[in-house]
């Protein structure tokens, strides 16, 4: 078998059940082999046995055991090159950057935006992971033993797949006895083209055996949903209703659900934002947030500037760094980079020397005056000894002569960043 055609392998460590099963289902569907491990000894032994293409570590609270595992990983000559993604609690940027030395290429703060998460995995293991981009807002809440699922805009297969694990997690976490389910999708217009997604939704909401089908109500104004359920014997018991009062009445009894009671439950459940009080979990993807977050840089630990007047060099280095999960900004001139330095910082710069206008030497001089100068790798066709000495004396951390393989530049960048931490 061609080595390039082998299946990719991902090792998931210490992941919570919902996270683990959802990620495994998605990656397995894309022909990626997924292994699981828990605890320091099991995780390290599996890591060195299979040498996966990627390690994903899920951290709940403490990094103590994880840090020990990462240190052991770096001490093994085969394992040290394995890239790592970590999901965990929010951390300061400086703390996150300190993980680079252990091969951590991305850090995702919880709650994870799974579209961006899978995009990152695909780039790292070089597998084109398909993602349903259908606009969809899906929220899940509970009140007592009633679980409410609200779906708006459209049916997104990735979110519906995640919903299965969210329902299970909610029932487990809140110890819901005899759970009952109301799925609200009143603003969706459906047709036969939605059939495959409707089937996935129904399979999802009926998957947990603790929820009896007679306790599942679908709130929909669309006749297609009723017709679809009537035509499938596996969904016998699931009822489609047209208003919330009827749905609540059929589950908790009409005396509890009529009049104001339905309004109170609808208001407190569907619009509440207190997760602890209502058990609300928002299943929105990063691309839909619209709050200025960048989909391409979400989870990146580093931001590297590439300063070169050669467009080909800029594109090659940009693709190389981004392939290992490092965000880049490319500048076609020293002047534009100098301007950018006035308003933002970079973790490292790859800098050409001879550019029209502001040269690489000018940039190095400018950086010397800063309290915390950006570390620089000079990447230039100039190989004369005096140029090398001048660049290093002005503070450059490394000097590489063009051309080099992109891996050489990435390795040098990692060495410099490791020494800086």
Give a verbal description of the structure:
- Strand 3, helix 3 and strand 4 form a beta-alpha-beta unit.
- Helix 1 runs antiparallel to helix 6, helix 6 packs parallel to helix 7 and helix 13 packs across helix 17.
- About 9% of the residues have low confidence.
- The strands form three sheets. This protein has a six-stranded mixed sheet, sandwiched between helices.
- It has 17 helices and 16 strands.
- The radius of gyration is 26 Å and the shape is elongated.
- The protein has 421 residues and is an alpha/beta fold.
- The longest helix has 17 residues.
Please describe the topology of this protein.
Blueprint: E1 9-13, H1 17-29, E2 33-37, H2 40-50, E3 54-58, H3 64-75, E4 84-88, H4 93-97, E5 104-109, H5 114-125, E6 137-143, E7 146-152, H6 157-173, E8 180-184, H7 195-205, E9 216-219, H8 223-230, E10 239-241, H9 244-252, H10 254-257, H11 260-270, H12 275-278, E11 281-283, E12 303-307, H13 311-323, E13 327-331, H14 334-340, E14 348-351, H15 360-368, E15 376-380, H16 385-393, E16 398-401, H17 406-420
Parallel strand pairs: 1-2, 1-3, 3-4, 4-5, 7-8, 8-9, 9-10, 12-13, 12-14, 14-15, 15-16
Antiparallel strand pairs: 6-7, 6-11
Question: What value does the Rg take, in angstroms?
Answer: 26 Å
The tally of helices reads 17
* Distance, first to last CA: 42 Å
Strand portion: 15-25%
Order of strands in the sheet with the most strands? 10-9-8-7-6-11
Mean pLDDT: 83
Q: Unreliable stretches, pLDDT < 50, 5 or more residues?
A: 254-282, 289-297
Q: Biggest β-sheet: count, sense, barrel? A: 6 strands, mixed
- Count the beta strands: 16
The residue fraction in helices comes out at: 40-55%
Shape: elongated
Class by SSE composition: alpha/beta
